[in-house]
């Protein structure tokens, strides 16, 4: 049972957070501000350190021809992607060798941005930042199939969960292409 939990959720805490996130979303307590799909021109992926989840999502979205950036809520700018993620991303055709972290302070909001967080606690943090609190924000995992409103951080976890996490992010990012067609630059 422990192996299945590790592979599917990363940790027992990851499984519990996923269950709680489903409840938060269902009860409308997740600090989501629904975006107007027609007005979105840029996808902004947000996580804790901008070295795993948001970095991969940005790289994948760009590969799919979408206008995308990412930042971390608790990082400094200029760091590279986490080496295991850098290697695992290659399997998905995503080259993160040029990725450099961006901190929340280094992110320059644009009016047609949608913030796509990995966890409900990220949404709460975004809601507390005056310069970002009014931007549309939601959970990336809500666009995955099946829906996964909590994308547990794979940092320092085993390779099996890292693959699961990246697969969920891939599924969700592919869903964004349909949900936000205006995020594809013209010509």
Describe this structure in words.
The chain is of the alpha/beta class and 187 residues long. The protein has a single domain, classed as Rossmann fold (3-Layer(aba) Sandwich), CATH 3.40.50. 39% of the residues lie in helices and 10% in strands. It is built from 6 helices and 4 strands; from the N terminus they run ααβαβαβαβα. It has helices spanning 2-9, 12-26, 53-63, 83-91, 120-128, 159-179; strands at 42-47, 68-72, 113-117, 137-139. The protein has a 4-stranded parallel β-sheet with strand order 2-1-3-4, with helices on both faces. The protein is globular.
List the helices and strands and how they pair.
Elements: H1 2-9, H2 12-26, E1 42-47, H3 53-63, E2 68-72, H4 83-91, E3 113-117, H5 120-128, E4 137-139, H6 159-179
Parallel strand pairs: 1-2, 1-3, 3-4
Helix pairs in contact: 1-2, 1-6, 3-6, 4-6
Largest sheet: 4 strands, parallel
Task: Determine the number of helices (DSSP H or I, runs of at least 4 residues).
Answer: 6
CATH architect. name: 3-Layer(aba) Sandwich
Low-confidence stretches: none
Overall form: globular
Radius of gyration: 15 Å
Distance between the termini: 50 Å
């Amino acid at each position: 049972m422990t192996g299945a939990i590790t592979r599917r959720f990363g940790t027992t805490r990851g499984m519990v957070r996923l269950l709680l996130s489903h409840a938060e979303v269902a009860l409308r307590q997740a600090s989501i501000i629904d975006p107007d799909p027609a007005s979105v021109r840029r996808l902004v992926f947000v996580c804790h350190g901008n070295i795993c989840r948001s970095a991969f999502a940005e790289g994948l979205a760009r590969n799919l021809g979408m206008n995308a950036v990412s930042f971390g809520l608790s990082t400094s700018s200029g760091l590279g992607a986490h080496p295991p993620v850098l290697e695992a991303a290659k399997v998905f055709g995503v080259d993160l060798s040029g990725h450099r972290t961006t901190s929340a302070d280094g992110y320059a909001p644009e009016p047609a941005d949608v913030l796509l967080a990995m966890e409900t606690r990220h949404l709460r943090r975004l809601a507390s930042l005056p310069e970002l609190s009014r931007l549309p924000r939601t959970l990336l995992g809500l666009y995955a199939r099946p829906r996964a409103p909590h994308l547990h951080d794979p940092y320092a976890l085993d390779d099996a969960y890292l693959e699961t996490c990246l697969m969920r992010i891939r599924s969700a990012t592919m869903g964004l292409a349909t949900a936000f067609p205006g995020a594809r630059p013209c010509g």
